[in-house]
Amino acid sequence: MSENQAQVGRPRAFDMDKALQKALEVFWAKGYEGASLPDLTEAMGINKPSLYAAFGNKEQLFLKAIELYENRPCAFFQPALLQPTAYQVAEHMLFGAAAANADPSHPKGCVVVQGALSCSDSANNVKQALIEKRQKGELQLQQRLEQAQAAGEIPPDADCGALAGFIVVQIQGMSIQAANGASAERLQQVAAIALSAFKALLQKE
Q: Is the pLDDT of residue 5 over 50?
């Protein structure tokens, strides 16, 4: 067998991190079902056998892309949980969402929110994975607010689950608004109003 023949069928050498970033951009712009395999392979600069060899199937590629999305240096959710007060947690999240969702350097909105809001039964696993990620984030926020409540920052009779839900609804709503064309300035206005409402909820009677 010649050297050329030996190369047949081998995955093409490529930078997996860069390819995954390109896949993320396609999923972000088109959603899970809207992103076709030709869309993905063209953006990633690889062929289908290479994609399957490196990442598995489309579903596995999407989930790896979501993991990359959540760990970006500019991600705001997890850093917000580390802020010293409940007010600063909410401030970091709301204004972080306003900035991130309207950032012109990438597709508008949030891929975790919009990646599979509605899809066919064949994509149900992806839809469920994103639901679980959103639920996990909301629970983490609730637990952080409960810590603040124990420290006396939040009234003892306040429902931290509802407070967390309030912030998450604002973040998810900003994602949809950004995808519909809302400007960064408009989203910042929304964040400011939501933060004022949150501050009022923190006031002790």
A: no
Over residues 137-146, mean pLDDT: 97
Q: Which two tokens stand for residue 18?
A: 């860069």
Taking the C-alpha atoms of residue 11 and residue 22, their distance in angstroms, rounded to an integer, is 18
- Which residues have a Cβ under 8 Å from the Cβ of 39 and sit 6 or more positions away? 26, 30
Q: What is the dihedral of CA 49, 53, 59, 62, to 10 degrees?
A: -100
128: closest CA among 26, 32, 28?
A: 32
Whole-structure pTM value: 0.84
Place of tokens 């056998």: 49
Site of tokens 């892309």:
65
Mean pLDDT of the chain: 88
CA distance 185 to 59: 35
The number of residues in the chain equals 205
Q: Which amino acid would we find at residue 146? A: E
